Amino acid sequence: MKDFISIKTILVATDFSTRSDQAVKVAVHMARRHQARIILFYNFNSFFIIDRTGRQMVGKETISENFEQVENSLKLIKEYLYEQYDFTDCKTVTGNDTLISSLNKTIQEESVDLVITGASGKQGIKELILGSSSYQILTAANCSVLLVPEDSHQLNFKKILVPVRVLDKLHEKFDLSRLIAEKNKGTIRLLGISPQKQLADIRKAYIGLRKELRKSNIEHDASFIVTNDKAMEISRVSNDSEFDLIILNYQDEGNWKSFFSENFLKRIINRTSVPLLFFKDPNNTNPPTDPEEGMGYDITLPFPG
């Protein structure tokens, strides 16, 4: 169990796309600042059916044929990190289970502190219903997650926005924010943001953190907003002031009113092009459920309908 906040192992999920290339660049710059190691992670999308003999892989031969190609591609990324950044503390991991099962297995075995993944920042109707890979990682990874937008070119976090919107694990998130600010020699903008009905509690917490910042050597400023639409206001502030990073506590707000509604997490992702770091408690003993677990088709039974 960790009793302090640190970033010593960074896992970066790659699919060899442009957006994951940017995530790799962010990862190596963070790793150098935090003296951390990097795990380059790739997972095969394995499809399966279920028959009387148990789970059967579909396309197993194809996966075997592609494995060598994937390993070579990961090796090329390692070589790039060495040649471009003289960075050698890097390991590659290839999973072949469901994305989340493979990811969380690696997080546990390698004591990963942070997962970095690229995100398109565009949620079409398909992603809204099924969930993109980056959104799956965000919601189900058993550690903090940094989403790097595809069009972001930010490698250093000089201007950091830290909203105070929920009280759960607020001080742990604040410790992470100070750590990142110190490593980047950056500034923190503390943003208290609350609806009227939670105003007293949120304001009290906001004032407490502002006092802590005044005792530190971190350059900072602070402001407070009363609103019922936190996602919209956080996005507006971040876009107006051109922040390099937003650090949020991973806690959703508001149930979906309909099948097509957006929760807080999707609203904030869709409305900003700034990298988003979602803090998750490393001591959480109730890991999220794998959204892919149990998926498949039972060919021994008629299709329900």
CATH topology name of the largest domain, in short, is Rossmann fold
Provide the low-confidence segments as ranges.
123-131, 255-259, 285-305
Q: Helical percent range?
A: 25-40%
Q: Looking at this structure, what is the CATH superfamily of the largest domain? A: HUPs
Please give the count of helices: 9
Distance between the termini: 47 Å
Radius of gyration: 20 Å
Query: How confident overall, as mean pLDDT?
Result: 83
Label the CATH architecture of the largest domain: 3-Layer(aba) Sandwich
Shape, principal axes of CA atoms: globular
Protein name: UspA domain-containing protein
Family: Belongs to the universal stress protein A family.
Organism: Chryseobacterium hagamense
Overview features:
about 300 residues, alpha/beta, Rossmann fold, 2 domains, ten-stranded mixed beta sheet, three-stranded mixed beta sheet, globular, disordered C terminus
Short recap of the structure:
With 305 residues, this protein is an alpha/beta fold.
Topology summary:
Elements: E1 9-13, H1 18-34, E2 37-43, E3 47-51, E4 54-58, H2 60-85, E5 90-95, H3 99-110, E6 114-119, H4 125-130, H5 133-140, E7 144-149, E8 159-164, H6 170-184, E9 187-194, H7 199-215, E10 220-226, H8 230-241, E11 245-249, H9 264-270, E12 276-279, E13 297-298
Parallel strand pairs: 1-2, 1-6, 2-5, 3-13, 6-7, 8-9, 8-11, 9-10, 11-12
Antiparallel strand pairs: 3-4, 7-12
Pfam families: Usp
Protein name: UspA domain-containing protein
Organism: Chryseobacterium hagamense
